[in-house]
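Hi there, hope your week has been kind to you so far. No rush at all, and the record is pasted right below.
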Amino acid sequence: MTVIRNIAKDRVLQITAFLVVLSLFAARPKFSDISFDTLWSILGMMTVIQIFEYLHILDYFAYRLTSLAANSRQLVTMFLGLAIVAGMFLTNDVTVITLIPLYLEIAKKYELPEILPVTLIGMAANFGSAFTPFGNTHNIFLMSHYTIGIGQFFSWSIPLLIASIVLLAGFTFFIKKIKLPTVAFQDIHIQTRPTIITVIVALLIFAGVLKLLPSYVGAIAAILLASLYNREIMKKVDYAIVLTFAGFFVIVSVLQQMPWIVDFISGLVSTDHSVFLTSILTSQLISNVPSTVLIGKFTNYAAALFLGSNIGGLGSVVGSMCNLLVYKEYATWGNGHAGKFLLGFLAFNVIGLVVLGCMGWLILDFIY
């Protein structure tokens, strides 16, 4: 019942289900338009993420690194570094859910700034997740939809990561240095053998994304492993995102059968730069995941779509689902007014979107 309740209360899935029902009045979706490879890969990654959370991998590194910080700027820099790396492998959502409450706990104890550091942790999680093919769900979709090779993917993601780190580094100079005592290291231990086995299963899922193995192999392995460790893990898997993606495929399948929709969207994505800008702008309105699925069905400019959809995670609160989680975590754990945080969050994100958007335009022109 817990699983069904969590699925039913997911707002994005609710909206998607409503749109699916409406779309069925327009045309009948084609079964072949549903990418089951993508759905299996997402299910596998969502399961592995919960296994890693169960093993407290991120908690261990968070406490280990922050125990070394001498001042507030150093502390935030360590959090940002960890958020980037964690986002690469554990997704941006898990990263912010773990790191933001921890930072706010330390900030409350030592009276440290909150708005900019928390906003930057969210940005760093988004940037890290953009770097790997499985760091976020729309990257998994892009890999599957365009059959992108691993070398090709990293030739796109490395320049973006470098530009993102430059942006974060610039923001950190606005964080005042406040001397703080050593943060006590919590007694958290990594379970070596379960962690190694989980990494191997994650590699199976990655092999499925690259089409080296059937995508269901890694997903089934992850489900079996989670059930072996603790059956409660499977109750925490984000099934809603899998169902949401299935809904996206149905909606886009219907839209592809409506000539005026096809002509309109095709006109917006006729060049690589128009794809880049359209994906950024639509992400601000409907989030970068559905934006990627929608645009991806109408264009072959995969590199521009990758760049625009990941940069489009900045900006509005709905630019990325991770942004909503950042706000939710602050509203739950923050020591200030949530409304004031939201204004600061939006201001810093808009600045970041403009700066990184300009750098992205240059990357598209001179590197891709």
